[in-house]
Amino acid sequence: MAKATSVLPLGLARVAGHRGAKLRAPENTLAGFHAAKRLGAGWVELDAKLTRDGVPIVIHDQTLERTTDGAGRVESATLAEIGRLDAGKWFSREFAGEKVPTLADALKAIAAEGMGVNVEIKPCPGREHETAEASIAVIREVWPSSLPAPIVSSFRRASLEKAKMVAPELPRGLLIEARETGWRETAEGLGCKAIHPEWSALDTEWVAEIHRSGFACVTWTVNDPQAAKRLLGWGVDCIITDAPDLIVPLVT
Ligand code: G3P
Ligand code: MG
């Protein structure tokens, strides 16, 4: 059985809740982050993008339809407009009244729970630099130094480049869908501390190679306990899951 509390790189926990606890509460909401804590996750992952007026908020899709009662593109809506939307009742009546949180409010809630956070910069196309810059400004403003520094991750190299430029001190994670030639050089060039591969792309050799190259290995999105056991056996540092309750028992 993998140890939950062994000393992990970057102050990581073995289990991080994906978008909060996506299978248990509406994703990327404060209720979701509190649920992740209740279900035993030590960290959470969330997605940051910008409103039309440039405020970092926590939402996954480029459009509002799936996770709110609004419509249209996130980048076309102001913070005030998004603030009027319900982001919980699509999931279940119990969560009616949940809002799309600002990144600032999300980070404050997560820090109050004593959890760590992986802020995925998920820019609308063309906003790679400004999304990274504005999200980092929020992290700097609200995140307490008593907790592990947030890992700033992205699929978008331009966002990671900007993050490196404006906040070299914050650990960066390179998100990877499938093993690609040159992953190590890319991550080194971006000054990354962690590689975040999609879990089915991993095998024991790649995990070892990631570690040998000096990176932490954070994988997503693992909801199958059998797969999680295998990944933990290979030495993956952190598993991002929609259902922390299914994975946490494997590491405690
Ligand atoms: O950060 C891991 C994972 O969240 C990346 O994919 O689309 O769920 O944000 P996505
Ligand atoms: Mg994400």
Provide structural commentary.
By secondary structure, the protein is an alpha/beta fold. 31% of the residues lie in helices and 17% in strands. The protein has one domain (9-61, 104-251): TIM Barrel. It contains nine helices and nine strands. An eight-stranded parallel β-barrel has the order 1-2-4-5-6-7-8-9, surrounded by seven helices. The longest helix is centred in the middle third of the chain and has 15 residues, at 128-142. The protein is globular. The protein starts with 14 loop residues before the first strand and ends in a 5-residue tail after the last helix. Bound molecules: SN-glycerol-3-phosphate (G3P) and magnesium ion (MG). Magnesium ion (MG) binds at residues 45, 47, 120. Residues 45, 47, 120 line the site of magnesium ion.
